[in-house]
Amino acid sequence: MHRIIAKKQNVKFFTTNINNNMNILPGVQEIHKEMTEWRHDFHMHPELSFEETRTSEIVANKLESWGVEVTRGIAKTGVIGTLHGKREAPSETKVKSIGLRADMDALPMEELNDFEHKSKIPGKMHGCGHDGHTTMLLGAAKYLAATRNFHGTVHFIFQPAEEGGGGGGVMVNEGLFDQFPCDKIYGMHNWPLLPVGKMSVRTGPIMGSADEFDIKIVGKGGHAAMPNETVDPIFIASQVIVALQGAVSRVSDPVKPSVLSVTKFNSGSAYNIIPDSASLAGTIRTLDEDTREKMNHALYNVTKNIVEGFGGTCTIEVEKGYPVTVNTTDETEFAAKVAADLLGFDNVVRDVEPTMGAEDFSYMLQERPGCYVWLGQGITDNDPMVHHPLYDFNDEVLPIGSSFFVKVVEESLKSEE
Predict the structure, then answer these.
(1) Cα 257 to Cα 264: distance, rounded to the nearest angstrom
(2) Vertex 329: Cα angle to 325 and 333 (nearest 5)
(3) What is the 8-class DSSP label of residue 267?
(4) Alpha-carbon separation of residue 401 from 80, 149, 164, 185 (angstroms)
């Protein structure tokens, strides 16, 4: 695989044992080349949130060709594939149906790679690996459709609009689990910071909430040489920024992480004019809902009191985004066992730190027990992280992800035959 980043002299290569000590399913390994071709095709034709018409049509057509029942159009471009095993699950069985989810959308960014399968669409790129996620779930679907070595039902959930569109939440609101009952739900994301051949599994919060805020501060403009005749919104906004960092250290519990970042500050038009207004914008990230609410209240109270204390007025708008992604205990332990059987006990990382990056699989986990795992795909310790213009999904791990999905189904819905 061509990786521009690996040309740096200080790169250290991870040691991996892929296909040597792993229990990759032979039937999955046999379609590795085919899956790679699918992935490259998706990568060359990226589609943004709720625009995944080409991708979803390919997904639906492949599923139908393998005998999987297909439902189109949930959350606009979403696709659900439903597959029944050799028999229905016995009535006394607690787990009768499993949901497996993959996201399909790309990012609005320019790709800087120069390999043959680079994006053909200017300003659009599969910079987060959703092309790989879609491919891995398709590979699992093809294998399971051929073997059906399980009792019960699996729903393959191909979700649109993870990158800011909240497609997971839209699917839930449109009745995903009413139409396609799932006792458990599992998802996966590639992770370049983790070496190939490893997987990380964590109970509880694994990815943060993501809220966005916009603040407009209105003062009184005037000559920059006579600030005493003004109510300076730039000065006030500066005090707000500093004070909001105090909210992180003095409002939230020290053992419960939170991040408040001001990412925009717009004001002024000339060297000698104090403007009438200033605007701020940014994001709040937390790992639990209590801290999330405290930080949102602190944003409002701190900003309002400082602005009014200096004689200005303000408007504060907070748009709540993705909730915290929380893995349930039993399902996480099960996912860890499946991963250990696949990769080896020592290759399952259980003490991984959560990230403040957000994920809309969280909406599905609010409705059903389940687990979201990270799949190692790193070759070196300096690989591009997701959302980088030189990023590319590592095709080497396609059989690993597909085998994991298959084993989740077969172990959850065990067939005695």
Answers:
(1) 22
(2) 110
(3) E
(4) 19, 18, 24, 15
Residue 94 has pLDDT above 90, yes or no: no
Burial of 166 (0-12, 13-18, 19+ CB in 10 A): buried
Pairing of strands 199-200, 348-349: parallel
Q: Whose structure tokens read 């035959």? A: 417
Structure token digits, residue 384: 């591009």
Distances (CA, A) of 131 to 24, 163, 173: 21, 13, 25
Within 8 A by CB and 6+ apart from 208, the residues are 257, 259, 285, 286, 287, 324, 325, 354, 355, 356, 357, 358
Q: What digits encode the pLDDT tens for the residues 344-377? A: 999 999 989 999 999 999 999 999 999 999 999 9
Q: Please name the helix (run of DSSP H) or strand (run of DSSP E) that holds residue 222, with its range, or none.
A: strand 222-223
Inter-axis angle of helices 398-412 and 130-147, nearest 10: 50
Classified as helix, coil or strand, 218 is strand
- Strands 78-84 and 153-159 come out as antiparallel
Q: How far apart are CA 398 and CA 403, in angstroms?
A: 9
The predicted model scores a pTM of 0.92
Q: How far apart are CA 87 and CA 91, in angstroms?
A: 11
Contacts of 389 (CB under 8 A, 6+ apart): 109, 110, 111, 112, 113, 125, 127
How far is residue 13's CA from residue 305's CA, in Å, rounded to a whole number? 52
The predicted-structure confidence for 186-221, as pLDDT tens digits, reads as follows 999 999 999 999 999 999 999 999 999 999 999 999
Q: What DSSP line would sit under 164-202, residue for residue?
A: SS-HHHHHHHTTHHHHS--SEEEEEEEEEEEETT-EE--
Reduced to 3 states, what is the DSSP secondary structure of residue 9? coil
Look-up of token digits 């067939």: 415
Output phi, psi for 38, to 5 deg: -60, -50
What is the rounded radius of gyration, in angstroms, for the C-alpha atoms of the chain? 24
Residue 280 CA to residue 118 CA, distance in Å, equals 36
Interval 145-190: pLDDT, tens: 999 999 999 999 999 999 999 999 999 999 999 999 999 999 999 9
Q: For residue 101, give both structure tokens.
A: 């989810």
The two most distant CA atoms of the chain are separated, in Å, by 87
